[in-house]
């Protein structure tokens, strides 16, 4: 006698059980993968948010520094302007006593037979125009003015002989004396 044992239901149950285990493992693995992806996404988002905050802070700092730089540039321009004004005032102050001294020295240096018809002073440059009895009188006036030290680089611009007198024009630089 042969006994026949049917193993099919047992194999079928084992196959269903293995299939269920596989499905559960697959679902658990999918859920774990989903959790890992969500966790990585959250980490990436938080890192991106921190970077955005840092960028905003850097931009705010850059704008603040730009404003400070603009202020510094404005102060530099003000300083340059003030230095220019100071230099101009110092020049005026240095030449302040030069004109009275020029008039005094002109009076002392003016020889007999010469007279001034025009005197122009502009930016330290002096132009004298006048009439003299002869070129020797003009030469004597030039020597006297150079000896006085009130004018530098004195030169005769022109000398024109008229019937009654000689017309002359002298040019020089006003000597600046510090006060």
Nutshell version of this structure?
By secondary structure, the protein is an alpha+beta fold.
Characterization of this structure:
- By secondary structure, this protein is of the alpha+beta class.
- The chain folds into two domains: 1-96; 97-174, Gyrase A, domain 2, CATH 3.30.1360.
- 64% of the residues lie in helices and 21% in strands.
- The chain is built from three helices and four strands.
- The chain has helices at residues 8-96, 98-109, 135-148, and strands spanning 114-122, 125-132, 151-161, 166-174.
- The protein has a four-stranded antiparallel sheet with strand order 1-2-4-3, with helices on one face.
- Helix 2 (98-109) packs across helix 3 (135-148).
- The N and C termini lie far apart (146 Å).
- The model has no long low-confidence stretch (mean pLDDT 88).
End-to-end distance, in Å? 146 Å
Report strand order across the widest sheet: 1-2-4-3
Could you tell me the number of beta strands? 4
Q: What is the general shape? A: rod-shaped
- Given as residue ranges, the uncertain stretches (5+ residues, pLDDT < 50) are none
Spell the H/E element sequence: HHEEHEE
- Strand proportion, as a percent range, falls in 15-25%
């Amino acid at each position: 006698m042969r006994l026949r044992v049917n193993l099919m239901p047992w194999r079928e149950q084992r196959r269903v059980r293995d299939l269920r285990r596989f499905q559960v493992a697959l679902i658990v693995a999918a859920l774990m993968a989903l959790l890992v992806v969500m966790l990585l996404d959250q980490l990436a988002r938080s890192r991106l948010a921190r970077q955005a905050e840092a960028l905003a802070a850097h931009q705010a700092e850059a704008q603040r520094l730009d404003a400070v730089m603009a202020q510094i540039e404005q102060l530099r321009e003000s300083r340059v302007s003030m230095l220019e004004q100071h230099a101009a005032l110092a020049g005026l102050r240095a030449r302040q006593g030069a004109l009275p001294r020029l008039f005094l020295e002109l009076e002392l240096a003016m020889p007999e037979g010469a007279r001034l018809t025009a005197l122009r002073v502009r930016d330290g440059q002096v132009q004298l125009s006048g009439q003299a009895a002869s070129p020797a009188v003009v030469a004597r006036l030039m020597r006297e003015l150079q000896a006085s030290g009130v004018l530098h680089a004195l030169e005769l611009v022109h000398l024109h002989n008229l019937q009654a007198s000689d017309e002359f024009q002298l040019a020089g630089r006003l000597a600046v004396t510090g006060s």
